Amino acid sequence: MRLSDRITGSVITTLGVLTTYGGSRLPPVPGQDVGPSAFPMVIGVGLIICGVLIALGIGHSFEEEAEADLAAIEGPTQRAQPADPLTYRLRALLPPGLLLFYVYAADRIGFVPTGALMIFAAALAFGAKLRVALPLAVLAPIAIHLIFYKLLRVPLPPGLLPMPW
Amino acid sequence: MIMNELIEAFRLVLAPDVLIAILLSSIYGLVIGSLPGLSATMATALLVPVTFYLSPIAAVATIIAASAMAIFSGDIPGCLLRIPGTPASAAYTDEAYAMTRNGQAEVALGAGLWFSALGGIAGTISLVVMAPALAELALNFSTFEYFWLAFLGLMCATLVARSSPIKAIASMLLGLLVACIGMENPGGVPRFTFGITDLLGGVEPIPALVGVFAVSEVIRAIVSPEPPPLPSRRFGSILAGQLTLTRKYWRQMTRGNIVGIIIGVLPGAGADMAAWVSYAMSKRFSKEPKKFGTGHPEGLVEAGASNNASLASGWVPALLFGIPGDTITAIAIGVLYMKGLNPGPTLFTERASSMYALYIIFILANILMIPLGIVMIRAASSILRAPRATIMPVILVCCAVGAFATGNNLFAVILVAAFGVIGYVMENNGYPVAAMVLGIVMGTMVEQSFVTSLIKSDGSLLPFFDRPVSAVLAAMTITALLWPAFFWLLKRFRPRQQRQAW
To answer: Which of B44, B114, B323, B452 could form a disulfide with B242 if both were Cys (CB 3.0 to 4.6 A apart)?
Structure first.
């Protein structure tokens, strides 16, 4: 997801405006000039300035230098395939999606089944074969459960499949 | 007095739980560091939930050992595959790989190992010497100095980022903004919580760090092609010839150590920056710069010595002021607070034995690095064969469990997911995430010292510049702020000369 400086700069400017506005509406501490609103307003103004500068493309030359250095080390291979199909790039949403799935499912079906589903889905997305992904999805959550629940005493939800320990 | 504390420190370190923690976390660090895409910072972030259940010394020991090992073992895939295992190895990956092609893989890996260990020890010495001396000075600091110090730290982080300084400042401000969330502010009012109860306590740094450093790496891995497997090969003696190299390049090694130490102390700049600067410096001052890039060990020596030296000196501002010297100590500070070792100058007077223990752990970890590193190099071809498709899914689940463990709260997992996306998008668009992390970690401290100072001075800005130490710090901060602007103007008006000067 590579966006132009114009877009990211405007996003930051908007955020700065919202921060300044939100900060200015915070209630002051009675009898005190400086309260909880001072710091957010300073940040907001800073964000607005940075956002505008970025959108105008100032300071871009520094980035080009750094990129040239990196390209010299890593070679052109990293940037060789610019036109990946959209479905391929959409896979970027899978890891955060699986984390949200964990939040939704962990208390309902328990840690081990949730972990197994997460690992199975992620392994397939990484291109693992079924005979690798299946045993991994079964064994890895049990091992993680053993380490975190038994040794580190993290209260992982038992759910449908309580472990014997 | 000192003797007693030293003996006490040895007793602390030689406890069985600490020794086991050092050994296991060393192996963990070596493996994680050697896997491309899994950085030393990520290894440290994933260790945090484990440290909850350890004694304070064991907890700090795991972080020290794992990070030192990971920075070294990042050299292994760099040397054998031309893919740096950690960003700290990226600067000299090409050189190391060229040596492997010339049939000198042993020398390259040995140099990585040997000069990493020596660099780590040099960094530790700097920590031992610098920290207590600075602690004396820091005892006299008031909120004005702390404000400038924190501000200077944030500015340094933006200066050294390998990106546009404006984007770095924007990242830092975003981090400060994240730190504003919650009720922990001068007025005690809920700020930017949007009525979400989970946000009242603020955004915990640990889930944010796990998201930014671990989940975003998983995302990056899923959209990039799998690295090629490592051809299996047999190595000759790893350390043979390292003494000759040390004798030949001791000057470069020392320079690398010093540069690494300085960069480590600067807030926000860590091992990767140290390696880049040292490699460039080595090339600049070398008698035979033509040989660089063709498999010449000189730059390897200097940069390898530099990145490990920066690790230990990164702890100096972290222990003294709670200002992280790099992203690894940003995580370590959280652990220090949790373990009752609150950073501050008094740490060196009241908990001296714990500090000595910390020094001993550093030395021990760097000595242990040599035998374990040799084993790791020999085992690398089988470990690196572990396919990414099995490691990354497990890491993802560990991120979820680790974040959950920080407060037994599922909201932390949502934060991890959110910061994973934020980190990925930012990094892809040239916004350095390290600067944002620094902002998140230091936000509360900056705000408190800023607002307390303003209240003390009745809203006047003059006392910020009145006190001698704070005036010096202020001057440095303002220079740091204006430096990129000056540089940019210089470049704009003298484009030709500037090209040649570089």
So the answer is: B114
Q: What confidence tier does B495 reach under pLDDT thresholds 50, 70, 90?
A: low
Closest alpha carbon to B403 in B415, B395, B418, B391: B415
Please name the residue of chain B whose CA is at the shortest distance from the CA of residue A13: B170
Query: With contacts defined as CB-CB under 8 Å, which chain B residues touch A141?
Result: 397
Highest-confidence segment of A30-34, B240-244, B332-336, B486-490: B332-336
Is A65 in contact with B161 (CB distance < 8 Å)? no
Q: Do A133 and B447 touch (CB under 8 A)?
A: no
Is the pTM higher than 0.90? The answer reads no
Residue B230's alpha-carbon distances to A133, B76, B110, B128, B233, in angstroms, are: 22, 11, 18, 40, 9
Reported as a single tens digit per residue, the pLDDT across B46-73 is 888 888 888 889 999 999 999 999 988 8
Mark which residues 96-115 of A lie under 8 Å from B by CB.
96-100, 102-103, 106-107, 111, 115
The answer to whether B467 touches B144, Cβ cutoff 8 Å, is yes
Find the angle CA(B223)-CA(B228)-CA(B232) to the nearest 5 degrees.
Answer: 150
d(CA A57, CA A100): 36
Name the residue type at position B499.
R
Tens digit of each residue's pLDDT (9 = 90 or more) over B373-398: 988 888 887 777 777 888 888 888 88
SS3 B340: coil
In this complex, do A73 and B396 lie within 8 Å of one another by their Cβ atoms? no
